Amino acid sequence: MATPGSRPDPRILRAARHLRGWTQKRLADEVSASQATISAVEGDGMDSVSDRILDAIERVLAPQIDAIARGTALRAEAASPPVLWFCPNPECISNVPMELDGEVWYYPSLVRAAEPQRCSYCSTPLRCACPHCHEPVVEGAFCRNLACGAALVTPPAGTPQGEEGRRAADERRARIRELRDLTRLRDHPLVEGRRREEPPVR
Predict the structure, then answer these.
(1) What pLDDT, on a 0 to 100 scale, did the predictor assign at position 125?
(2) Does pTM top 0.85 for this prediction?
(3) All structural domains of the chain with their residue ranges
(4) pLDDT per position as a tens digit, 185-199
């Protein structure tokens, strides 16, 4: 925990928050502080923040801070290199439904960016970590952590399975293809400079 003589590295706290998939507002709510306070903690104003708030931040972000200390997520923040982000909203057209062995799951589009983004399709805050174990996102639709393996995008309740699910997934992919053709976000200036890696919609 933080002490007056030894305060946490703001870069580590920022990286831990990103890894948790939280906005500054969400972290502020969790520790009963203002978003301005979190911004100060992650910037040059940490000296003005009380030890109580710093202790609370370190407590709620402890698993992510530990992961960074072990080196599993260090590259995600060092020199702000691009990392992979995905939209967790299963209704978003960035997530393509697939059916395999009677089970429906979603293959997310991935965006490479150095800082948190909002989805260009639905404005949902993107995530860069597994929602279950908080491991950094790699390629694919599932967490690569052997101890986890969870789907990155959770199907909504009531998602049909089996043959009905296959038909629903086919119809949804056709609709996604139509909407993507209409939006043409690959050429939109808001995503200029980003690399959007969208799964094929067949």
Answers:
(1) 92
(2) no
(3) 10-76, 83-197
(4) 554 443 334 444 455
Q: CB neighbours of 69 closer than 8 A, spacing ≥ 6?
A: none
List 140's β-bridge partners, or say none: none
Contacts (Cβ under 8 Å, ≥6 apart) of 137: 83, 84, 85, 86, 110, 127, 128, 129, 130, 152
> Are the CB atoms for 102 and 134 separated by under 8 Å?
no
Burial of 67 (0-12, 13-18, 19+ CB in 10 A): buried
Mind listing the pLDDT tens digit for each residue in 136-160? 888 888 998 888 999 999 888 888 8
Answer yes or no: CATH 3.30.930.10 is held by domain 10-76: no
Question: H/E/C letters for each residue in 182-195?
Answer: HHCHHHCHHHCCCE
